[in-house]
Give the backbone structure.
Amino acid sequence: MQFLYYTAAGIILYFVSDTILDRIEASRGKRFENRTIIFFVIILVLAIGSFKVIEILTAQ
């Protein structure tokens, strides 16, 4: 069952990370040159946190 939680979290994190990056770029006024690296850092930080929460909540 955990794999469903991780899969759903990964899909959600993808869209959340993209939204966060778009908002940062909008406030900056232009796109980042290395957009994929910044996207990777955002999704990595969110994934580590959310996967740890899933691990804690599903531990029995």
Summary: The longest helix spans residues 2-28. The chain has two helices and no strands. The two ends are 13 Å apart (CA to CA).
